[in-house]
Amino acid sequence: MMKVVEVVAGLVYRDGRYLIARRKADVHLAGFWEFPGGKREAGETLEECLQRELFEELNIRIDWPVPFHVVRHQYPEKTVELHFFRCGIETGQASAIDCAEIRWVWPHELADFEFPPADRPVIEILRQEAIGGIS
Question: CA-CA distance, 102 to 92, in Å (whole number)?
């Protein structure tokens, strides 16, 4: 049976825009853009994992994450279960500590960046929301 990796991703939102991060050159899916987050460690809740990952990667403390969407994606070597959460920055200024670069982008701009396949359904939902397609 194929391993399922649980991953959290933060839809960090501010003034109408989302924070996205570019993956470093030496990691799985290198160079792709993503919503920041990472793998859950043993004993962590998904929310705790997201708070830890965003602090480690971006030096920000977030407010309580709100569950948004779950995507299961099959890669050749593993299955990833991505838990997306909406959140905002409580303290800190986001900076690219453990990623190649970061950007704040409007929902309609998300399609201009190359994301891993697993992120695409969420990008579509965010774009629809922004144009009023989903209430």
Answer: 15
pLDDT digits (tens, 9 = 90+) for 102-121: 999 999 999 999 998 889 99
Give the residues of the chain that fall short of pLDDT 70. 1, 133-135
Among the listed residues 108, 73, 102, 78, the one whose alpha carbon sits nearest the alpha carbon of residue 89:
102
Paired tokens of 91 = 């303290």
With 0-12 CB in 10 A as exposed, 13-18 as middle and 19+ as buried, what is 21?
buried
10 Å CB burial of residue 118 (0-12, 13-18, 19+) is buried
Looking at residue 42, what DSSP letter applies?
A: T
Distance CA 88, CA 67 (A): 13
Supply the pTM of this predicted model.
Answer: 0.90
Q: What structural domains does the chain harbor?
A: 4-130 (3.90.79.10)
